[in-house]
Amino acid sequence: MALPSYTETRYRIWHYFYIAICTFVFFFLIAPLFVIFPLSFNAEEFLVFSEGMKKLDPDAFSFRWYHEMVYGTKNPWGLAAKNSFIIAIFATIGSIILGTLAALGLSSRHMPYKGLIMAVLISPMIVPLIISGVAIFFFMAKVGLAATHTGIVLAHIILGTPFVVITVTATLSGFDHSVTRAASSLGSNPVNTFMKITLPLILPGVISGGLFAFVTSFDEVVVVLFLAGLENTTIPVQMWTGLREQLSPTILAVATCLIVLSTLILVTAELLRRRSERLRGINR
Amino acid sequence: MSSETRQILTTDGIPLEVSLKKAEKKNKIKAFLLVAPLLLFLFITYVFPIGEMFTRSVDDRMVTNMLPKTFKAMESWDGKELPPEEVFTAFYSDFKFLVENETQGKLGQRLNKEKNGFNTITKKLMRLIKRNKIDESQSIKEQIMKIHKRWANVEYWQAIKRTAPPYTMAKYLKGMDMYFAADGSIAQVDEDRRIHRILWLRTLEIALFVTIFCFLMGYPIAHLLATLPMKYSNLLMICVLLPFWTSLLVRTASWMILLQTQGVVNDFFVMIGLVADDNRPTMMYNKVGTYVAMTQILLPFMVLPLYSVMKTISPSLMRAGKSLGGTPFVAFWKVYFPLTIPGIGAGCLLVFILAIGYYITPALVGGASGTLISNQIAYHMKATLDWSFASAMGLMLLSGVLVIYWVYNKLVGVDNIKLG
């Protein structure tokens, strides 16, 4: 943002001040993530930068903690990663199915009590997690699903659907309903119309909602802490225990992997968002 | 027009109006059926369990079920002087039944919470019953009163009577540091023991300040993102979105590393000479840690709604303001700022709602002075196992959140929440 040459000095100063503030905030947002990287290669057992690391001594760096993460004895990360992925994948599928159906109904102009129903469907996103955790725990304990994968998957479907509902309704808001009418008038049945016409058009919204649901489940710890037994431990639960009890750099190695994963997800989500915006732009 | 206006009929002879209504109804049902699976699922697994928390929080049927005859006999007792013989007899027979089933311990504990000293005297009574030392042909009242002087104290019988109703608001009062006094009125806990009020206030304070910090930091960068050319703003947007997509625990972990006494922030302060090396400030396990970490974690939730509103404001409006003689400051304040108020409302409410129920970050970096009401709920769920109290506190928090959610829905509309 170049300033025009006639700008008065005081606005010039203000402008640089504004740029400085913005730089600081961006730094504040992103810098903490980059502390994790170098420390995860620490050769020592402490979570601080050693003297060697500050001097960039190659001996001060090692893959020790990554090795520990994968091959360490009695280490919980393998099981946790397996559980996390299984739970997140099933929770995502469930959220996508229930959420997309609901979004299709909600964006019909015939839908009665739209506002109220939307408010109920979004509520798991708004209600504090600790309350959701307590309520879901009581329910799962009653029906005998506490400390099972099924229970956790169901809990994560509850937490994941709001995201799918929001993203899919947003995609459908730019959706031209005359194309489905055209399909029906040409003799297609509703299921066929949905699979061949509607779904391909709203797919970016569905996938980005699914990504949100996946990340929500993959990152969720409060509800799992209530529901999980030893067998159902997940990556966030292990990190939580690790951060509370034995602070070991292995956690940082795991954290680095998670940052890489979230970068991949971010890139996918961004590409989808742009594609969706382009498609909607054409429709208008 | 006369009443003879001809009704329009469809080909099969049904009035058009009726036919249209029928079609409309069919469409309504179709739309509703699509929403029904999720709605049903949420009601069964989520909405009803939250309702059940309420039943749990007011449930006080334990004593009611343990002493059915006693409470029946107590109905005619005015509660001013020692109860008559029938009450003692009824209590004795209830209690004897409990002793035979070995469940009298629970009663003792529960009554002890109502009035201190019950544990001892119920245990004494239990031992006498077990040794058959009570002669049922004599006056039960005389014998029980002889066991311990507290049994002859009317206050203890009043305490039993207070536990009669199957429902109690006591847990809610406890959450506000109040309790039912001996005469049934509501009394305040001693000033030095009002821990819950401190927690409520601290939760509000932290949520409020985190919202303010997020606003102060989020507004400028949302503005920059909205006004920069796409090429640059997309790049900078990553700085907002990457933390947004990164695991909460990873972000909390990085703050733990940064803020510790030997951490990077303290190293930096020492390097620029702000603090002495042997006098490093504690920034973790207190409020500072909670503020810093929560602000960074919730900042994207402020920036994204602000950005989506600012993006729609045409830059020509500011130019018009300036060309009409406003200085840039005046043009900003009179033209730009009012247009961003919907975004400010959305962002602030969202951050406040999320902050007020925060659990993980305060538990890890907050220490004793930085924990919030959520941590207290978790503590009662896991450590003291007082689930009814945890439910009561949870519902008190929930009612606050729902009020804000309602306002949010009125102002912004839930279907306008923007994600990324």
Descriptive overview:
Helices cover 75% and strands 0% of the residues of chain A. Chain A folds into two domains: 9-65, no CATH class; 79-283, MetI-like fold. Chain A is mainly alpha-helical. Chain A is built from twelve helices and no strands. Chain A is globular. Chain A starts with 8 loop residues before the first helix and ends with a helix. In chain A, helix 4 (77-106) packs across helix 9, helix 4 (77-106) packs across helix 11 and helix 9 (190-219) runs antiparallel to helix 12. The two termini of chain B are 57 Å apart. Chain B has helices spanning 16-58, 61-66, 68-74, 85-100, 104-114, 118-130, 140-147, 154-162, 170-175, 195-227, 230-245, 248-259, 264-271, 287-310, 315-323, 328-356, 360-365, 373-382, 387-411, and strands spanning 178-180, 186-188. Chain B contains 19 helices and two strands. Chain B has 420 residues and is mainly α. In chain B, helix 1 runs antiparallel to helix 19, helix 12 crosses helix 14 (287-310) and helix 18 (373-382) packs antiparallel against helix 19. Chain B is flat. Chain B has two domains: 61-168, no CATH class; 195-416, MetI-like fold.
Layout of strands and helices, then pairs:
The complex is a heterodimer of chains A (284) and B (420).
Chain A: H1 9-40, H2 51-54, H3 64-71, H4 77-106, H5 114-126, H6 129-142, H7 149-173, H8 178-185, H9 190-219, H10 222-227, H11 235-244, H12 250-283
Helix pairs in contact in A: 1-12, 3-12, 4-7, 4-9, 4-11, 5-7, 7-9, 8-9, 9-12
Chain B: H1 16-58, H2 61-66, H3 68-74, H4 85-100, H5 104-114, H6 118-130, H7 140-147, H8 154-162, H9 170-175, E1 178-180, E2 186-188, H10 195-227, H11 230-245, H12 248-259, H13 264-271, H14 287-310, H15 315-323, H16 328-356, H17 360-365, H18 373-382, H19 387-411
